[in-house]
Design a protein that fits this description.
By secondary structure, the chain is of the alpha/beta class. It is built from 16 helices and 22 strands. It binds zinc ion (ZN).
Length: about 500
């Protein structure tokens, strides 16, 4: 065979080996964003800089001027930042149906990390291969879910501690997931399947994830009166398995622990001083959204003392907003307290009546702002949504602009560069995502351009999918995916593996 044939054969083979979804690598389009204030992801103060990128990489950051052929973006009055990395995202299923992911890119999110709270797609390798075959607008990474592997091994007989042989089989599954590219192991210990696991089970499985450099990420066992014990358990798992720990959506969710953020922070700080690598993330809302029955953990919905305690735990019936109740639409968007007064009933009687009439959707304000602020002000707390495409809570479409608009600009809880760090380099370092989370020459051109004067969330508990304002342009791997309030058709999202 002639050398020319050999060479073209080599090219054909090389192209065949190129995984799908790497279109960005052949995208040689060049751009320069001129005159924006740079928040480079490090937390350093804003500075004026031009950002030039070619194909999927940033090539220069600084005074450099556009070159011939560049598309020039006027960044005057805007901030350019690394794309936001949402380390706790629930879009795993919806991404296939909605690859444009408008509710995500509209917030400036360029990478979603799915599989939190103990539940993940399975097998991880197949799921990621499917995402490579049909890429989305955003990059994706995945955790392996503890409840997912527990269910695979124990089936419906999960309401008990696992036997040693079962833990060994779960460990093999975690091993498989890690080899297939999972970022680590996630758990949801307040939920049905994961909640029956003993600490030792989680230690054994975390050891497997640790072997591959993974992270143990946990919705801890209690976010209410026993929050501090739950925090200590997560830390103990990190210590015993020698694995970094990520506390998911850190919060203090009942009256008994309100205003005690300092105590939670002291527990984490003490662990960090001993060398345990503990970090956390937090969503910027003081209310959750669910069905009215979740208020009563012992599930005795028509037993007045249980209901009474449930309402007291969230600060009273005035903190429970009815958002959906088919039997009485006239109750919607009024509090349990107000409706009870109108109807000359006690809130407990009304609660019991509502459950009998088919239940209701509620929004419950059960966290206090000073705890939220104290957590965000810790260097080890990141911003994450705990939402995703289609989430029935405004955090699914509002989290990142809400932090930038309300908690940076209006309330001044954080400086802008520090908030950006919590959205970019902090999660990137946590997950060891190479060349992401900062704007430096050589980094992937995952970028967001926003207006710091107007950026704000607009999603509400009644309309949770309204898109935020102020995010002007979003690039993933150098390709524009969001432009002036609209998604663009490009699907440059990459699959990121550990
Ligand atoms: Zn959770």
């Amino acid at each position: 065979m002639g050398s020319r044939i050999l060479r073209s054969l080599a090219i054909v083979i090389a192209l065949a080996l190129l995984p799908p979804g790497t279109a960005a690598q052949v995208n040689r389009r060049s751009w320069t964003i001129v005159g924006a204030d740079l928040a480079d992801g490090s937390g350093r103060a804003l500075r004026r800089a031009n950002v030039r990128f070619v194909g999927d990489r940033v090539v220069s950051v600084g005074p450099g001027v556009p070159q011939r052929g560049d598309t020039i973006v006027n960044g005057a009055g805007l901030v350019v930042a690394p794309g936001f990395i949402d380390i706790h995202n629930h879009s795993a299923e919806e991404l296939a149906n909605d690859p444009a992911a408008a509710t995500q890119v509209a917030q400036g999110i360029t990478t979603v990390v799915v599989g939190p709270d103990g539940g993940s797609p399975w097998p991880i390798g197949e799921y990621l291969a499917e995402r490579r075959r049909s890429p989305a607008a955003v990059n994706i990474a995945a955790f392996a879910g503890h409840a997912t592997v527990r269910r695979l091994v124990m089936g419906d007989d999960f309401k008990r501690p696992a036997r040693a042989d079962e833990v060994a089989r779960m460990a093999m599954l975690v091993d498989q997931a890690m080899r297939e590219g999972a970022m680590g192991l996630s758990s949801g210990l307040e939920y049905e399947v994961g909640g029956y696991a003993e600490t030792s089970e989680l230690v054994e499985l975390s050891k497997v994830a640790a072997k591959y450099g993974g992270v143990y990420m946990s919705h801890i066992r209690d976010e209410a009166d026993k929050s501090f014990d739950a925090l200590r358990e997560a830390i103990a798992i990190g210590e015993r398995a020698r694995i970094p720990v990520q506390i998911s959506h850190i919060k203090l969710g009942t009256v008994g622990v309100w205003h005690k953020a300092a105590e939670a922070i002291a527990i984490v700080e003490a662990a960090r001083k001993r060398g345990v690598d503990v970090t956390a993330d937090e969503y910027p809302y003081n209310a959750w959204s669910s069905t009215i029955t979740v208020l009563v953990p012992d599930k005795r919905y028509d037993y007045p003392p249980s209901v009474e305690k449930a309402l007291a735990d969230v600060g009273g019936a005035a903190n429970v907003l009815i958002v959906r109740h088919a039997a009485h639409p006239d109750y919607e968007f009024r509090t349990l307290d107000a409706v009870a007064k109108d109807r000359k009933m006690t809130p407990v009687e009304l609660f019991i009546q509502i459950v009998r009439d088919g239940g209701a959707g509620v929004v419950c304000t059960s966290m206090v702002d000073d705890d939220m602020r104290a957590f965000y002000q810790q260097v080890w707390v990141m911003v994450a949504s705990d939402g995703g495409i289609g989430t029935r809570h405004p955090r699914g479409a509002g989290t990142f602009p809400r932090v930038l608009g309300r908690y940076v600009r209006d309330e001044r809880w954080l400086t802008l560069p520090e908030a950006i760090r919590k959205m970019t380099s902090a999660p990137a370092e946590r997950l060891k995502l190479a060349q992401r989370g900062r704007i430096v020459a050589g980094a992937f051109a995952d970028l967001v351009l926003f207006n710091p004067k107007t950026v704000v969330d607009r999603s509400t508990f009644s309309e949770p999918s309204i898109l935020p304002a102020g995010i002007e342009k979003v690039f993933v791997g150098g390709e524009l995916v969001w432009d002036g309030g609209k998604p663009v058709s490009a699907r440059p999202g990459q699959v990121l593996v550990r």
